[in-house]
Amino acid sequence: MTGNRAFRVAATGARVLTGAVVAGACVVGVAFGVTATWPTVVHEPAQAQVTPLPGDTVLVCNGDLRAVGRDPSNPLEMVSAATPELTVEGSSGRPESSPLLARDLADGGAALRLVGIVDGRQAPLLGATESASLAEADLSGLAAAPCRPPSIESWLVGGTVATGTEDLIVLTNPGVVPSTVSLGVYGSVRASSTVIVPAESQVALPLTSIAAGSDFPIVKVTATGAPVRAVLQSSLTRTLDPAGIDLQDAVPAAQRQPVLPGIEVFENQGDNADMAVLRLMSPEVDSDAVVRVSEVGSSTVVDEFTVPLTADLPTELSLSALSPGSYTMSIESDNPVLAGVRQQDGAGPQDDFAWVTPAPELEDDIYMAVPSGPNPRLVLVNREDADAVVQVASAPGGEPTAVTVPAGSSVSVDVKPRTVYSISTPTPVHASVTMAAAGELAVWPIWPAAGAQQSITVYP
Fold this sequence. Notes:
7-stranded mixed sheet
């Protein structure tokens, strides 16, 4: 009996000891498991890189220049002052064209819609620009603008309602349905208006009809129903003498680092304060914009200053400190800004003026059209840390010329009027075309190819 009890005690002790060991092992295992890296199961989603089929390349030209008030009995009537000359070429031949009627012109007129038909999976490159030179009793000077795709949203930066000016907002709808266009005016006076642009047509309205009393008005153009092409036609009269015309292309959006190539500063016998003027605005938020100006062909900054900007309030500054010459301007801001430079070649009658707007970044192949006009030059700006080699050739099939744009600098290249060029650059650059002669001044940015399709990632 005593032996059995001793055996039972020993067995029970063994079981307790074993349980304690097992329990301790479990505790250690749990503690280790919590701190250890657990195995994971990862399922990579199926994906594929797909390049959408490109559509036809569609460009919209500006059409007839307009004159207002030539009939004293009807001072608001618009008539055609000139039909511009078009220079156009495409990589697959001359594009198809069709008229977009300007129904509000008393004597008729039209803009052109240019269509480059897609070939397989390749959208054709198109280069098209219009220009017109006038020497009339009420309008004189040179105006030029590229043909561009329509857009849903854009900005017109260089408007004015000052005495002696006549600015017209020209809206062209190449689509097959009407477009409802909202115009929002930013300036010392805020205003808005809505315009219906019928399908396949063009309308225009005076800037004074929506921006009267506003200093330095900037107009936001928003289209619904169909995208539109927006252009600002400007003219200036001093006393009774015409003093310039301009066609200003719309800016797609505000930018953090806009680049403005092709600024010309001219000598003037009197006050130089108005020979070159910078206009800036920061939409929605306050910003500080740092402005740097360099001569074309040099990386040296000749002028640098900071401009504090109040949200939604345009401001202007004179560039009178600059000596006569050719310049490029770069702007850096903590928030996207809108920018433009107004330049003029004199302060008397028979002079001309032009607005310089930001040039977008170019990379890859494009077509560029140089229309009729005096002394055309291509200005290339390279903001990268390495030199850029840009191939420039007359299109189609011309022998290319290699143009080296040093890092952080710019160059100017003479080009021929009424010629279309192909430009190829593997390094990002910015570019504008300028034309200048006595009483004739025009400048416009070069845009990336329309209709190019980027690859997208598809997750089935």
